[in-house]
């Protein structure tokens, strides 16, 4: 089954809702509920988004979205997992991928909409892992498959084995190149862009896209909403995966789908990316 999302909109990633210091289940669920009510396109989680006491904390939070919208897509990832309070490890072997997929299906109560190999860049035998992903899709354990954190070279290797339904890589405005995005567009593969604002340890977004920030300030609109709206128009086939931890911020980002992009904002976005050596 192909992985399909509407043309404009955001995906909510729950990593920070689980892993951020001081995170609580109550605040996480409040953000998820608000996001679903506002029309978020999908929920993004992973086996690695776990607490010390619950290996499936992130998937349980994602599953809560289905109490409001039973058909909302849930994306999860295999092969990366928590070992302890501040330790994670990677095992992308076929055996681990299958075990993670079965555990995800158990927690979610249904096949994940999309299962990604979480750290494709750190897998010892990518070919074996991809063959296992394809088998899981064929068996109906998962609906669709893909890679996360994968270079163009790794994507070529994987696609020589099977069809990829989606790719999820970091695309932080002002930091990352668009090479994997362009590859996916040419191949017709949905591209999920995580950490578009730079991630929790990044400098303020306005410093990465100053021209967009100036336009947003004049118009009384947040730079986050403005840059996402510009992205929707400039990067068809890409969907930002936002990591909001507050209801107000997730609603602001979702509202970007309804923001009209005029020539001034369009040019500001293009100039900001070009100044960082990123061409679309």
Automatic annotation (TrEMBL):
Keywords: Oxidoreductase. InterPro entries: Aldo-Keto_reductase, NAD(P)_OxRdtase_dom_sf, NADP_OxRdtase_dom. It comes from the Bacteria. GO terms for cellular component: cytoplasm. Residues 12-264 form the NADP-dependent oxidoreductase domain. One of its GO terms (molecular function) is oxidoreductase activity. Gene3D superfamilies: NADP-dependent oxidoreductase domain. Transmembrane segments: none annotated. This is NADP-dependent oxidoreductase domain-containing protein. It comes from Agromyces tardus.
């Amino acid at each position: 089954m192909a992985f399909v999302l509407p043309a404009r909109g955001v995906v909510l990633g729950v990593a920070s809702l689980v892993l951020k210091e001081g995170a609580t289940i109550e605040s996480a669920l409040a953000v998820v509920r608000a996001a679903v009510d506002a029309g978020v396109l999908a929920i993004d989680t992973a086996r690695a988004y776990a607490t010390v006491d619950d290996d499936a904390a992130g998937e349980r939070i994602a599953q809560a979205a289905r109490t409001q919208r039973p058909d909302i897509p849930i994306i999860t990832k295999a092969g990366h997992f928590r070992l302890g309070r501040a330790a994670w490890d990677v095992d992308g072997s076929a055996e681990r991928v299958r075990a993670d997929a079965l555990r995800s299906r158990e927690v979610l109560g249904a096949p994940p909409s999309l299962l990604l190999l979480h750290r494709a860049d750190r897998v010892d035998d990518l070919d074996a892992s991809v063959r296992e992903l394809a088998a899981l899709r064929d068996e109906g354990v998962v609906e669709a498959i893909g890679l996360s954190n994968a270079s163009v070279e790794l994507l070529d290797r994987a696609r020589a084995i099977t069809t990829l339904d989606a790719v999820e890589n970091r695309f932080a405005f002002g930091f990352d190149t668009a090479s994997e995005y362009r590859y996916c567009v040419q191949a017709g593969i949905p591209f999920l862009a995580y950490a578009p604002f730079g991630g929790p340890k990044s400098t303020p977004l306005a410093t990465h896209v100053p021209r967009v920030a100036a336009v947003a300030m004049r118009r009384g609109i947040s730079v986050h909403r403005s840059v996402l709206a510009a992205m929707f128009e400039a990067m068809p086939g890409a969907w930002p995966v936002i990591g909001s931890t507050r209801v107000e911020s997730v609603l602001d980002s979702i509202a970007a789908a309804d923001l009209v992009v005029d020539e001034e904002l369009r040019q500001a976005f293009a100039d900001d990316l070009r100044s960082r050596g990123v061409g679309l």
